[in-house]
UniProtKB/TrEMBL annotation:
Keywords: Membrane, Transmembrane, Transmembrane helix. It comes from the Bacteria. The chain crosses the membrane at residues 193-212. This is Uncharacterized protein.
Length: 220
């Protein structure tokens, strides 16, 4: 009796194990969605674009999920596991950003609406989100990574904090007064000194008077 019980237990375990493995394989075909809300002071920021790149696909092989990176992003030398993706998200996103120019865009949102962005029908994988055109008055959204599934969920929401565009300080302007009209009224300086002229006139008149007196004395 005990022998038959152990046999049935083994058969049940194999059947159940097969169902679990099969369920994992089927789960890979499920798609998810990502909701992105760029915010400032609690309000969604409208405007700017958003480009989505699929960095890696999810695979299930004899254990928990793993990531298979796309060849175009392999030069980033990333250690892809959930722990590193959480702790090194900003660093990994920065590395991948330099390679994105050569990668195909998976989803291209031209303008982020006032309600945020909902990207649906995303296969399970690792995604890079980049903004190349900022919303008016704001800096570019910093690049970031998201995985599907995330904590067992296929519908993921992300809130990205935006920063105001730094106001450029106004350059001081130097006002130069226009003295052209004032100078036009002034006599040009020729290098001659004018103060001896009155003295010379007086001396000249005196000499003329002396000459008249001398002429009268000569007649007598």
């Amino acid at each position: 009796m005990k022998k038959y019980f152990l046999l049935w237990a083994m058969v049940f375990s194999l059947v159940l194990g097969g169902k679990i493995v099969r369920a994992s394989v089927l789960d890979i075909n499920q798609v998810g969605s990502v909701t992105i809300e760029p915010t400032y002071a609690g309000q969604i920021v409208e405007g700017g674009n958003l480009k989505v790149y699929q960095v890696a696909t999810v695979i299930y092989k004899d254990g928990p999920k793993a990531y298979q990176i796309q060849p175009v992003f392999s030069a980033a030398n990333l250690l892809l596991d959930d722990a590193n993706l959480d702790q090194l998200n900003a660093e990994y996103a920065s590395r991948l950003q330099s390679l994105a120019a050569s990668a195909p865009v998976f989803k291209d949102i031209e303008t982020i609406p006032a309600t945020g962005v909902v990207i649906e029908e995303l296969p399970q994988g690792l995604y890079l989100f980049l903004q190349t055109q900022a919303a008016p008055g704001y800096e570019l959204m910093k690049p970031f990574l998201l995985t599907l599934p995330k904590d067992g969920k296929l519908n993921v929401e992300a809130t990205e904090k935006m920063s105001l565009l730094n106001a450029q300080p106004r350059k001081p302007t130097t006002v130069i007064p226009n003295k052209t009209k004032q100078r036009d009224k002034e006599l040009p300086f020729t290098g001659q000194i004018w103060w001896p002229i009155p003295i010379l006139i007086v001396v000249g008149i005196g000499l003329i008077l002396l000459s008249f007196r001398g002429g009268k004395s000569y007649k007598h």
